[in-house]
Design brief:
216 residues, alpha/beta, six-stranded parallel β-sheet
Length: 216
């Protein structure tokens, strides 16, 4: 089982929202909702490009902005994160069933290590962070990397995602995708099981979806 982090397991998109809006104000601007929506699921570098363009200052140094944002979000993450409904229970059930699990996130390792204080490093056999792959989501590399490290065929893996970018990444890797929208609406897509909440999902249902896919 392959799990996204932000917006899927923990309600951290709101934490990112605080940091991003504070960063925009440091430059004398206001982040638009349209730009904020485009950032969901993207890498830090891509998010900075969107932010700088949105406040009409595309010449700003993206590395300096990333450093400031990462430091601020680090502080917010360290204060604790809130689980998304049903996420902890599903993760616990996956582990109780003895299924291998990976965390696959566009967030950088430094912040992921802090978040793991909430979600538990022991819950994952593999962790793939945004700064540990050559291509971030929506490229399939993050999910292909996670499946490879687990020794699993990605076509036999279920990926739990919340964003269009993450869904595209997992689909391109060949995974069965369970999509649980958080901050951004998702368009119904072939190969994607869309649900309103992870409270509606359990291990038996995931296995049925995977079995049905293999038989198709």
């Amino acid at each position: 089982m392959l799990f996204d982090m932000d917006g899927t397991l923990v309600d951290s998109e709101k934490v990112w929202d605080v940091g991003l809006r504070e960063l925009a104000r440091r430059f004398g601007g206001e982040l638009s909702q349209a730009a904020r929506t485009r950032m969901v699921g993207t890498s830090m570098a891509e998010s900075m490009e969107i932010l700088h363009a949105d406040i009409s200052q595309p010449w700003l140094n993206p590395e300096e902005s990333v450093t400031w944002l990462e430091n601020r979000v680090y502080e917010l993450f360290a204060a604790g994160l809130i689980w998304r409904p049903g996420a902890r229970e599903l993760l616990d059930a996956v582990r109780a069933a003895g299924l291998p699990a990976a965390l696959v996130t566009a967030t950088r390792r430094r912040l992921v290590d802090v978040a793991l204080g909430t979600i538990g490093a022991h819950n994952f056999d593999v962790v793939v962070c945004g700064d540990e792959v050559g291509n971030s989501k929506p490229h399939p590399e993050p999910y292909l990397t996670a499946a490879s490290k687990l020794g699993a065929d990605p076509r036999r893996c279920a990926a739990i995602e919340d964003s269009p970018t993450g869904v595209a990444s997992a689909l391109a890797a060949g995974c069965l995708v369970v999509a649980v929208p958080c901050e951004v609406a998702l368009v119904p897509t072939d190969g994607v099981v869309q649900i309103d909440s992870l409270t509606m999902m359990d291990v038996a249902t995931l296995r049925r979806h995977l079995a049905g896919r293999a038989a198709a």
